[in-house]
Amino acid sequence: MKMELYNYAISPIVFPEGREVEITVRPLGDHVAFRQESYTILLHEIDDMYSKRNQKLENVKPCEDGCLRFRAVFTGEREHFVYIRDGERTVVRLSVYSLAPDMACRLPFRGDLHVHTCRSDGREEPAVTAANYRARGYDFMAITDHNRYCPSLEVMRRFAEIPTVFNLVPGEEVHLPLTDVHIVNFGALYTVNGIVESKQAYLDAKGDPNLLSANGKPAPSMSEEAFKEMIREKAAALTDLPEDVDPVSYSVCKWAFDQIRAGGGLAIFAHPYWLVSVFNVSDPLTHYLMETEAFDAFEVLGGENYYQQNGYQTALYYEEWKKGRVHPIVGSTDSHGSTEHNRNSDICSTIVFAHANERADLIASIKDRYSVAVDTISKEYRLVGEERFQRYACFLLDNWYPIHDRFCADEGHWMKEYLTGNTDGAMDVLQVLGGKVQALFDKYFIVG
Q1: What Rg do the C-alpha atoms of the chain give, in angstroms?
Q2: Phi, psi angles (nearest 5°) of residue 326
Q3: Rounded to an integer, what distance in angstroms lies between the CA atom of residue 191 and that of residue 199?
Q4: What's the gap between Cα 60 and its chain centre?
Q5: How many other C-beta atoms can be found within 10 angstroms of the C-beta atom of residue 90?
Q6: What is the pLDDT of residues 59-80, one digit of tens each?
Q7: What is the pLDDT of residues 88-118, one digit of tens each?
Q8: What is the β-pairing status of strands 371-375 and 348-354?
Q9: From CA 342, how far away is CA 116, in angstroms rounded?
Q10: d(Cα 397, Cα 390) in Å, to the nearest integer?
Q11: 8 A C-beta contact, residue 221 and residue 197
Q12: Is the pTM above the cut of 0.85?
């Protein structure tokens, strides 16, 4: 966290552009108290030190509670520096951000849409995995175990009584016969793996519709033989497919994407440049799926830290942009262990700019391209996405998430305590913590 955030709290930090707002700067300790009779405040746009819109507020006096308060109008969608001056000396430089109307009605929610647990090939149980993710500052996540949907329902039900705004979304990683392509089902209300009766998701449920779906309404199932016959019929009907694209693999992918959408989910094309012995998806198929925009979102950043996966996927995303196809994007850990002992436990994430931290709104916002993918492989983060969202995300990563994440760390700790036997004491603390993160949003963001 930046040193100035240890010494001063400024709020709100995000608000609509062009609207007068009152800013409060509170010193965090007697050693940084505002002791002078008055201060000068300079408000500078980050992109133009000499802008005629820059403002100078003189004789700003500390209030009785020791805070400095001032009112100003900030123009444009940009970061603004707030310099507090004592004569010629800068006491501190802080930052705020003004947003254009389409963004001013949205809040930033950081999440992971692709996570594994010990129910497939991960390390920890689903509920512990979720608690660990909350402790690292995630606002939402989906458990997406290989071939299995039940673990995502398991974790949702384990935390159903917890008073938290942490959003747990149903999901699975879809593996279907006749192709090796991996597809992430984020948020569909029924399992896609479980439509095929030979798959583990179907076998887990043992006929219980509440294990095949989040609302007791699963999709009709079919035998593996019937599935293969259906796919081969679809593949045979394709007449304009490029010669080097496997019609069967394409047909499986298209069917899976359509099923996820039918269930109200986000169909994610995952890690085509994951190196197994070769790339997970053939280049011709990858490019054709991009060209036909068959999926809802592209997992541009994923779970490996060698360059080929995320580097090539990022390059592909921008190459597609040059062709006029701006795909919705996400970044995910594809984690198989939720503690720091897994080197890939927190290497990628997604910030979604949504009206609410709810499954349907997150999905709609990603589809509408209100998201940015975050690469935290190294401590110097990198971002993928549209420039305006990258700029805003930089501001948030430097000025919002260090504050936000400290509160989430406490909540994640007590969620795990609740899971592991400290039920009464943990619930008492969680009742207190439950509204704290929402209160933070209310304090730091003016939505309008």
Answers
A1: 24
A2: -100, 95
A3: 11
A4: 39
A5: 12
A6: 999 999 999 999 999 999 999 9
A7: 999 999 999 999 999 999 999 999 999 999 9
A8: antiparallel
A9: 12
A10: 10
A11: yes
A12: yes
